[in-house]
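Ligand: shikimate-3-phosphate. Inputs:
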Amino acid sequence: MDKNIVLIGFMGTGKSSVGLKLAEKLKMKFVDMDREIEKVTGMSVSQLFRKYGEIRFRSEERLMAQKLGQQSNLVIATGGGVVLEDENIQLLRENGIMICLEASPADILARVSRKKGSRPLLKRDIKIEDIENMLQAREHLYSCTTHRVNTSDKDLYTVVSDIQKIIKQLESK
Ligand code: S3P
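Predicted complex:
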């Protein structure tokens, strides 16, 4: 595989855990965009938002999309908001297969609630309606790819195997 595999999707859809497992399976390098931004800036995503605001975070995110889009053979877990800027999608798509992970609002809520405080866009007492509203507002952005994999009610291995099937199909075309 030469192209990157780029996982997009809302917060809590499993991009990081699925990406790590997928990379292991395909013997590719795994890169988590948020963690890379943290390395470059020396701050956690939450600190970055708190100290410099979302605009600064989005600008770091764009630089990271530029950098990673020029590389190959990576499994990239993006941050949920990477789709907010069309330029990011163009940059990552240039050398990448885009796969969108999905999950039910209830699953998303359960997953993000486990890591309270690490996602600056979600308030601590977040409700399922808030998730539904945000999902609805972003839905048209996640549809930048037709390759979609649901991660609700499935174990990690099934999700990884679903993605592998998509990749095989694309390679045989
Ligand atoms: C964001 C998602 C987060 C992180 C930042 C903004 C978003 O990543 O990039 O808090 O706008 O959806 P995860 O999707 O990994 O939580």
